Amino acid sequence: MWRSCLRLWDEGRRLLNRPRGGLIASVGPGPNPRLQARAYAPLTERKRFYQNVSITQGEGGFEINLDHRKLKTPQAKLFTVPSEALAIAVATEWDSQQDTIKFYTMHLTTLCNTSLDNPTQRNKDQLIRAAVKFLDTDTICYRVEEPETLVELQKNEWDPVIEWAEKRPFPFRYGVEIGSSTSIMGPSIPARTQEVLISHLASYNMWALQGIEFVVTQLKSMVLTLGLIDLRLTVEQAVLLSRLEEEYQVPVSTKSNSFPPRARSDTCCLWPEPHPGDITSSTDNSACDPQPSA
Question: Which helix (H) or strand (E) holds 62?
Answer without folding.
Answer: strand 61-66
